[in-house]
Design goal:
The protein has 246 residues and is an alpha+beta fold. It is built from seven helices and four strands. The protein has helices at 6-20, 26-52, 72-85, 107-130, 139-168, 179-197, 215-224; strands spanning 60-67, 89-95, 98-106, 240-245. The longest helix has 30 residues, at 139-168.
């Protein structure tokens, strides 16, 4: 799987250091956080264009992640949403008490999915433990709606950043192909590989929330989430089995 250059990670670390400093104004912090993700989005576009031109090798591969409790379904939804925002496809099956999630996508995109899921999963897990359900509401259902709101908003932000990066890209592939067209083609290639790997897959039932009380608070937390990787070596990875190419 394609690795993210150290110089990119170092720039992101510096942006996050300013954003996370206690003395940084919240509005300014949000600007630095968006810039951090913009760097990663631009990296994804750059790799896509270079691969389309034959300058670098970036093939469709797969990443396998085990997702356990607590809140297994919510963490699984986060991974699937991040993968979709980054032009990947995800499928899961149960294995004992855990879920095994297979993410299919181009190597450069899988690298970002891995980093973002690691960071966002930790942020969501720590954030939901800090919230308190209003009096008279069940804590578990409140927290589930909070996490659903968090996932929804985070994935909206990821999609918005990806679209901005594609629109802002001045690069063009041989033959004048725009970044938008290159990305559409990459999505189609990923879908073909995914459907070849899982020809008889069936869509799971849509999750239904019975309690929406924490939705807006979760979305607000998603607005403040760091859309970037944790510092290297600073956190334990949540069940990453590892990437495969093929």
């Amino acid at each position: 799987m394609a690795g993210i250059p150290e110089r990119k990670l170092e720039l992101v670390r510096k942006l996050l250091a300013v954003a996370e400093h206690p003395g940084t104004d919240p509005t300014e912090a949000a600007v630095y956080l968006e810039k951090a993700y913009a760097v990663m989005a631009a990296y994804g576009i750059e790799q896509a264009m270079l691969a389309d031109a034959g300058v670098v090798a970036d093939e469709v591969g797969q990443l396998t992640v085990t997702v356990g409790n607590p809140y297994q379904a919510d963490r699984r939804a986060l991974l699937a949403g991040v993968a979709a925002a980054l032009r990947c496809r995800a499928i899961y099956w149960r294995s004992g008490r855990e879920s095994v999630v297979r993410v299919v996508g181009f190597g450069s995109d899988l690298a970002v999915v891995e980093l973002l899921f690691t960071s966002l999963c930790l942020q969501m897990g720590s954030g939901v433990l800090r919230v308190r359900a209003p009096e008279g509401l069940a804590t578990v259902s409140f927290r589930k709606s909070w996490m659903a709101g968090f996932v929804h908003r985070v994935c909206e932000r990821l999609g918005e950043a990806e679209r901005r990066a594609a629109a802002d890209s001045a690069a063009s592939a041989p033959g004048g192909r725009s970044a938008e067209l290159v990305l559409v083609d990459r999505r189609a290639q990923v879908s073909r590989v995914y459907e070849e790997m899982f020809p008889r897959v069936r869509r799971g039932a849509r999750r239904r929330l019975r309690d929406w009380s924490g939705w807006e608070d979760g979305r607000a937390a998603g607005d403040q989430a760091d859309l970037e990787a944790p510092r290297v070596g600073s956190q334990r990875r949540p069940g990453l089995i590892g990437p495969e190419t093929g």
